[in-house]
Structure formats: C-alpha cells, structure tokens
Amino acid sequence: MKEYASVFLLSLTSLGYVGIMLGLMVEFIPSEIVLAYGGYLVSQGKISFFEAVIAGIIGGTIAQWFLYWIGRFGGRPFLKKYGKYLFIHEKHINVAESWFTKYGPGVIFSARFIPIVRHAISIPAGISKMSFKKFTLYTILAIIPWSMLFIYLGNKLGDNWGRINETANPYVQLVIVIVILATVLYFLFTVFKKKRTKFE
C-alpha cells in the first residue's frame, strides 16, 4: 500500500468502527483493505466483530447509495466529466451497464463480488431508475458476506493483516466462480420464464 494511503487508513481506523465506516464511504482505499484492518482491530480487542461488520455494512451501503444517486441525477454526462475523481472510468461504466442490461436488477448482488464491475454497477442502476428499496436490499445482501469474510481474515491474520490480498485470493476466486455460475443460471431461468409466459 502506498505510504499516503496507509497514513490515511490508519488515521481513519484509529476512530474504531466509525473509521471503518468512513473508510468505506470515501472509496479511497479498496474495501477489502479497510475491512481487513477492521479485522486486525478486532484481534486487538479494540472493537468487536459485530461492530466491525455493522460498520462495514453501513459504510459500504452509503458508498453505493452515493453512486446510485449520481447515476440517477447526473447520468453519463456527469460521470464522463467527474468520474475520474471517483476512480471510475468510462470503460468501467460500459462493462457495468452491459451486465445490468443483460442480467437485470439481480446483477446488483452478484456483481459486488466481481473486480472492476462491483463499484460501477450502482451507476447503471441509478441511470435506469431501479427501485431504490430493491437496490438497497441487493446491495446489503452482498455487502454482508463480503464484510464478514475480510473482517474474519483480518482478525485471523492479526499483525499480518497487510497480506490480506494474498490470503483472501483463494476465497475470492471461489466466490467469483460461484457468483458467475449463479448469474448465468439466473439469466437462463429468466429467459425461460419469459418464453414460457409468451406461449401461454
């Protein structure tokens, strides 16, 4: 991790679970790093596992709300002009929009586990004016296991929490495979259901 990012992270997380929440909201550092450090704080007895998970859910959800409302009220013109300041480029939006168009609102859950797409997927949801309640539900359902995984691993790693990417990689790869398979099955089921309804 770059030195300035490390200092920023340590400054935030010194606030305990509030710092974890803020770290996830600003999207300045990858969520897995923030959550892993939260797990380290759990291992030090500074916060509880439950508090860390709740902070992860709240911070992660608010961060996605922010992107959703940008998509809903700013759309592509705003993102083309200011997206780089949010670390989201047009290619990320294109991929996310393609996924959203192809697989529908349900992809809000599955895309959270896929690199590149997971942060940008909230934008096409906002552009398409997806139900905010449904968007929030799918987002929270995905953030819960994501937060629990990285906080748990950070807790187990303790002082070695900085090795989180290396340690988590096998778990993340497995989750990605499962999510992709589930997404394909969901898509096939949706197509089959539409065709069946058409011929009834």
Automatic annotation (TrEMBL):
Task: Report TM segments.
Answer: 7-29, 49-71, 135-154, 174-192
Pfam families per record: VTT_dom (PF09335)
Sorted UniProt keywords:
Membrane, Transmembrane, Transmembrane helix
Q: Does the keyword Protein transport apply?
A: no
Cellular-component GO terms for this entry: plasma membrane
Report the residue ranges that make up the VTT domain in this protein: 29-155
- Source species, domain of life: Bacteria
Q: Which family does it belong to?
A: Belongs to the DedA family.
Q: What is this protein called?
A: Membrane protein DedA, SNARE-associated domain
